[in-house]
Amino acid sequence: MGICRVSLYMCLILMGICLMVIGIGGQMPLSPVIAYMAEKSDSNSWDLFMMDMRTGVTLRLTNTHTVDERYPAWASAGNRLAYHHNETGTFNLAVMTLNQTIPTYTPFLLEANMGDLTTIYDRAMPAWSYDDTYLGFHAKTRNGRYGLFMGYADGRETRMIINPPELGDVVQWAWSPDATQIAFTQTMPTESHIYLLTLPEGIQPFATNRANMRRIIENANFPAWSPDGTKIAYVQQLNDISVVNRIWIYDFVTNTQVKLIPNGN
Description:
Elements: H1 8-22, E1 33-39, E2 46-52, E3 58-60, E4 69-74, E5 80-85, E6 92-99, E7 102-107, E8 121-128, E9 134-140, E10 146-152, E11 159-162, E12 169-171, E13 181-188, E14 191-198, H2 206-212, E15 214-217, E16 220-225, E17 231-236, E18 246-251, E19 256-259
């Protein structure tokens, strides 16, 4: 089975994953490998792959004809990947354990562990905390809009962190290296911006958290922290729809934004 094209959008995602490996977006796995998703030409579905950057050897992690597996996220120990898949028609999270290149799969969040959150669905875009204790993700809520959730990596004590605004969604977790803050995207019908929230020490109502979030980058999405917590990489598109999405860096120290490839097209 062949792998077809990787779209421009996927190129941005792959670049973000490569940046993670070289030290822009997260902690480095134990060996210089990247995980990525690619679309298959014969089924229009997505599978997960892993490539050793030292040897160029690629390992196929999933091989499903009707199921999409997307957005792999490394645990800092380098032996687990969280991702989302749509085997049941809506997206759910799973954790893959890599043991001598033989992957095993377990659901991140069993329905039995959902408690009063049983109505959320389309759980997607997982993000590990830097000590691998927690997973953050976005999911649809009772009104059909996406909010932000977090829970222990085994699915215990899952709770909503940010509720969705009216006619909008809150998506894309990004933990700070010290695990005290999250950057995320809030989208509205005509705009999307990146916000920052300092996580409270105790459990706070999501409405309280919403009041404490602040906008840091306009017209942007897909935030990813640098390992020292002083910068965020993100994807931005200018108002001109002919301008292709580009990766930028926001510097908290200088409060400046720089395009990753200043002289690129």
